[in-house]
Amino acid sequence: MNNAAIRYLGSLMKELSHEAKYLLVAGAVTGGGLTVIANALNPAELALVRQGFSDECVGALWLPASAILPTATACVAFVLL
């Protein structure tokens, strides 16, 4: 399921508090940068990310490993701000 569907379905749930809806959107936005296949903009992202890998080949193990720090930073920013 993609992030837009998750956000839409979450917005339909009346019993979710505003804080829970915020965290739902924050989680979808934060995790959305890690998907290489699901989003339309990812060919452009992949072209940029590929330059940081040896032989310009993005490995399935190295992409999440290299995204841990920026993703964690975004998570902390969404929770604290």
Automatic annotation (TrEMBL):
It comes from the Bacteria. Pfam families: Na_H_antiport_3. Keywords: Membrane, Transmembrane, Transmembrane helix. The chain crosses the membrane at residues 21-41, 61-80. This is Uncharacterized protein.
